[in-house]
TrEMBL record:
Signal peptide: none
Alphabetical list of PANTHER family matching this protein: APOPTOSIS-INDUCING FACTOR 1, RIESKE DOMAIN-CONTAINING PROTEIN-RELATED
Protein name as catalogued: NAD(P)/FAD-dependent oxidoreductase
Keyword Protein transport in record: no
Origin species: Nesterenkonia sphaerica
Alphabetized UniProt keyword annotations: FAD, Flavoprotein, Oxidoreductase
Limits of the Reductase C-terminal domain: 320-389
Length: 409
């Protein structure tokens, strides 16, 4: 079998297949995925699907009818186990090696495993099956301990509170989503969770988790203990790249690829989504982005470059991720960071909306926006067009007069 073989049936893989057809690709397209589940979208797993407000059918990335009409073959329940780059063969666990003309690595990532083991009642959240198991433990009046206050942990805490589950949110860092937030913005989210009844334990780690479902004891690094009925361990993710260890591809917490999404020093191999470590055109070092929007945009780039190898496009996009927590829509554009200066517009607890603009030497680096879609649009446009921070601030000032300025010493 030749044509294009895509390894991974999450958003990057499926969108690559669809984009190939929309750009006129006429060769065979095969998607290989280790899960037996029909391809599904993952953002809802920590939100509406976990709460029971949305159902399995609403998560489909592509219908069976569309897959058939586009002549996209799916080999589900088939795990990629190796790659013969010289012979252009994908090795899988259920059949003979699959030949390809072009290969797309879109294997995504997996939840970082619990360091304390994973008995019944201790959960991670990355797959549909993970979400189903966690949902079963979110009964009203139960107590959930969430270890890790990143996006997944914070979203699950929000969903659990909406289900009248008691929640303790634990993180060794001083505030939620600390990788991209300054103390001021992080404080917004600490206050948000506390206002909705979450017990927060920030600045303290977990030493051990003992007991079983319905009676867990989490020993913390300050000597205290948290009791819970179930536990979610949300401490990050890892790229699914271990199957490529012996392939000769350059692997470093993801598959290294150039600005065209091509695997370094190979021909006919592309990478998209969470498994891609892409050369950064602005900063130089490679970066691995775990964002839904980035996966979709990389898929379009990969499809174009497969169809038009003589007119390859550089992958360029403004990083963007969103999170729904309680009644807040939190949107992050660019690369905000705690070591940048910050200009703050509004207050989410007063006006119900706010924006924090992140600056270094007058250059715009990123934005965190709460419940303010017009400003988010302006921020993404400003980053894409390389406006100065002042230009964006002037634009926001035209929308509101509420502004306060803070700077890092």
């Amino acid at each position: 079998m030749s044509g294009t073989v895509i390894v991974g049936a999450s958003v990057a893989g499926v969108r690559t297949a669809q984009a190939l057809r929309s750009q006129g690709y006429s060769g065979a397209i095969t998607i290989v995925d280790a899960e037996e589940e029909w391809p599904y979208d993952k953002p809802a797993l920590s939100k509406s699907f976990l709460s029971g407000q949305s159902h399995r059918d609403s998560l489909e990335l592509i219908s069976k009818t569309e897959a058939a009409s586009l002549e996209i073959e799916l080999l589900l329940g088939t795990r990629a186990i190796g790659l013969d780059v010289a012979e252009k063969l994908l090795e899988v666990d259920r059949c003979v090696p699959i030949a390809y003309d072009s290969l797309v690595i879109a294997t995504g990532g997996r939840a970082r495993p619990s360091p304390w083991g994973q008995p019944e009642g201790v959960h991670v959240l990355r797959t549909l099956d993970d979400a189903r198991k966690l949902h079963n433990d979110l009964s009203p009046g139960a107590h959930l301990a969430v270890v890790g206050a990143g996006f997944i942990g914070a979203e699950v805490a929000s969903t659990a509170r909406a289900a009248n589950v008691e929640v303790t949110l634990i993180d060794p860092l001083p505030y939620p989503m600390s990788r991209v937030m300054t103390p001021e913005v992080g404080d917004w989210f600490s206050r948000l969770h506390e206002a909705h009844g979450v017990t927060t334990r920030f600045g303290v780690g977990v030493e051990s988790i003992d007991g079983g479902r319905g009676n867990f004891a989490l020993k913390l690094t300050d000597g205290t203990e948290v009791r819970s009925d179930s536990v979610l361990v949300g401490i990050g993710s890892m790229p699914n790249d271990e199957w490529l260890t012996d392939s000769g591809l350059l692997i470093d917490n993801g598959v290294l690829c150039d600005e065209f999404c091509r695997a370094i020093q190979t021909e006919g191999i592309y990478v998209a989504g969470d498994a891609a470590r892409l050369m950064d055109q602005q900063t130089g070092p490679s970066v691995r982005l775990e964002h839904w929007t980035n996966a979709v945009e990389q898929a379009k780039t990969v499809a174009h470059n497969i169809v038009n190898p003589g007119d390859a496009q550089i992958h360029q996009s403004v990083e963007y991720v969103w999170s729904d927590q309680y009644d807040w829509r939190i949107q992050v554009a660019g690369r905000p960071s705690h070591d940048l200066d910050q200009v703050t517009h509004g207050d989410p607890f007063v006006q119900g909306r706010a924006a924090a603009i992140f600056v270094k030497g007058g250059a715009l680096r990123g934005a965190v926006v709460v419940n303010w879609p017009r400003v988010l649009i302006e921020a993404r446009k400003a980053i894409a067009r390389k406006w100065t921070a002042q230009e964006l601030n002037d634009r926001i000032e035209s929308l509101t007069q509420s502004v306060s300025i803070t700077s890092k010493d």
